[in-house]
Every structure is written in structure tokens, then in C-alpha cells.
């Protein structure tokens, strides 16, 4: 599975509008890496208050988009029996913001699986706009049983 649309994204992730922050997956190498995109629109609800007159996508939402990309990589790497779990972000290290994301940008999210240890999946994430890095972080996630 290399490329999938919003319908397949919603099959894997429990998030829905306005909190689904992935529009499409461009490439997925199960167990290795995933590249996804988010088309940033002026209609996003957070732009009303962040910041009036100078809309900027909040950094925490860029990190959330990266976390959702890790969830997609995890779910496309699992067999069908394992996909009935909920995937939780459990930690973020070395987060850095290097640029702004504004309406009209296409945010490209690249995540790579580093390793797994005791049920924790460790990833490196990078977000770019027009080839320039706007954010990067190390993310830790865990698949847990749904309640």
C-alpha cells in the first residue's frame, strides 16, 4: 500500500473534523516510513483566533498532524487483527519549530519508525512546506485496547 485517500485515512484513524489533520497519504512503506499531506485552508477553525490578521497554524497542531501520521504508519504496518486498537501519543522529544504554516500551504508530513521497545513505538517526524522544514520532533506512541 503506497498511496491512499481521505476515505482510507478515516478507515485507520478515529479522528474526524475538525481534528482530522491528514488529507492524503502519498507514500507508505509499512514498518519503515510514511509521507502524508495536509492542505491548510483559511477555513480551519483555529485561524479565527490564532492570530486575527496574521493566521498561523498552531505548532501543537503540526505536532498532532505528525502524531496522526505515525498512527497511519502503525496501522498500515499491522495485520488486520491488531487494527482494533486505539493509538495514543505518549511522548514528544526534541520538538523544534523552524517556520510558519499559513493558509494556502501544503504541509508535508514525513515520519520514520525508529524502533519499538516494550510496546512503545518511537518515530522521527518532519513537517515541510515547499521543501523547507517547518517542524521536527521525536514522537513516542503506544497501541492500547479500546475501552
**In which order are the strands of the major sheet placed?**
1-2-4-5-6-3
Shape descriptor: globular
Mean pLDDT: 93
Q: Quaternary status of these chains?
A: single chain
Q: How many helical stretches?
A: 2
The level of helicity is 10-25%
* Whole-angstrom Rg: 15 Å
Low-pLDDT stretches are: none
Distance between the amino and carboxyl termini = 29 Å
Structural class: alpha+beta
Give the count of structural domains. 1
CATH topology group: Thiol Ester Dehydrase, Chain A
Largest sheet: 6 strands, antiparallel
CATH class assignment: Alpha Beta
Q: CATH architecture, please? A: Roll
CATH homology superfamily: Hotdog Thioesterase
Element-by-element helix/strand order? HEEHEEEE
Strand content: 35-45%
Number of strands: 6
Descriptive account of the structure:
This protein is an alpha+beta fold and 147 residues long. The chain has a single domain, classed as Hotdog Thioesterase (Thiol Ester Dehydrase, Chain A, Roll). 18% of the residues lie in helices and 42% in strands. The chain contains two helices and six strands. It has a six-stranded antiparallel sheet with strand order 1-2-4-5-6-3, covered by helices on one side. The radius of gyration is 15 Å and the shape is globular. The model has no long low-confidence stretch (mean pLDDT 93).
